[in-house]
Amino acid sequence: MLYSLLRTVFFSMDAESAHHLGMEGMKIAQRLGLIHLLAYKVPDKPRSVMGIDFPNPVGLAAGLDKNGDYIDALAALGFGFLEIGTITPRPQPGNPKPRLFRIPQANAIINRMGFNNDGVDKLIENVKRAKYRGILGINIGKNFDTPIENAAGDYLTCLRKVYPHASYVTVNISSPNTKNLRQLQQSSELEALLDALKNEQGKLAQTHGKHVPLALKIAPDLETEQILEIADLLLKYRIEGVVATNTTLSREGVAGLPHGEEAGGLSGAPVRLKSTSVVKQLSLALGGKIPIIGVGGIMSGLDAKEKILAGASLVQFYSGFIYRGPELVREACEEI
What is the pLDDT of residue 2? Predict the structure, then answer.
């Protein structure tokens, strides 16, 4: 009820301004011991995935907390795990504003943020400052001005820096808002990137005395042949997880609606079926050897269950959290 009232206020504002105001308000509520007014009791549903023991299978997707500014407040809402980022080696402002658009008629969001973040070093400072000791994924990317042929260097820089602080690391090669980034999903380029990351992971495991799993985040707009090629490479390089999926370039479900033709990635309800289809195809191709984190269009507990039935081991959401609030965490956990 409280979130419904707050949402009415926030939805009357510019989307990005509302995001910052809402997150700062949540942070203040947590510090004042009032976050329980927003949180719901979430059942314990432990499961082991990627060698990690999760208290429940419902997580927050990357993008909501890019810099790790709100870790403790988000953790108080019952998520089984949090994923922060996408982070890049150097700070960058992202694309010009406005760059975030709600489409409430379709329970959708379009964003063209462009990996706006304060840089990996600032994120690490925030992680160190947080009191949260639960499961923390860190999502890494490349700077917008790094040539695509040098992208691996950016990913390796981020991996080295976040490795000691992450429960797992997600390699984001699927945002549509960084020029040529999705090119890294092509077989030859992906193979070179995974080879470099896996070699570095082995060295870091020895240096730090712990193994931090790697997950690859892919797009929902892939053809079946591309999905099968990616699955083969995930198996070949023993990548520990795959996040399916990122936002879509399709405008199915929002065409003709206000803001429906804005450039950027579409998330929320319209991407649900595309995302679930990718999860199903990956699940068949991987044969249970690599776990899938299902994300995309989860707006209800039944949507979360759909991802699990399609072959996912864990789920995440972002747009669903904007539209439904913390109640969705409990609802998704109860349905799974």
Answer: 86
**Is 175 among the catalytic positions?**
yes
Name the active-site residue from 175, 283, 313, 319.
175
Domain count, the chain: 1
The separation between the first and the last C-alpha atoms of the chain, rounded to the nearest angstrom, is 23
DSSP letter (8 states) at residue 110: E
Range of the domain at 316: 2-335
Residue 39 belongs to domain with CATH number: 3.20.20.70
Q: Which helix (H) or strand (E) holds 121?
A: helix 120-129
For 263-332, the DSSP string reads SSEEEEGGGHHHHHHHHHHHHHHHTTSS-EEEES---SHHHHHHHHHHT-SEEEESHHHHHHTTHHHHHH
Question: What pLDDT score was predicted for residue 152?
Answer: 98
Q: Helices H, strands E: what count in the chain?
A: 11, 13
314-317/108-111 β-pairing: unpaired
Low pLDDT (below 70) residues in the chain: 1
Share of the chain above pLDDT 70, in %: 100
Q: pLDDT for 140-150, tens place per residue? A: 999 999 999 99
pLDDT tens digits, 95-113: 999 999 999 999 999 999 9
192 neighbors 182 (Cβ within 8 angstroms): no
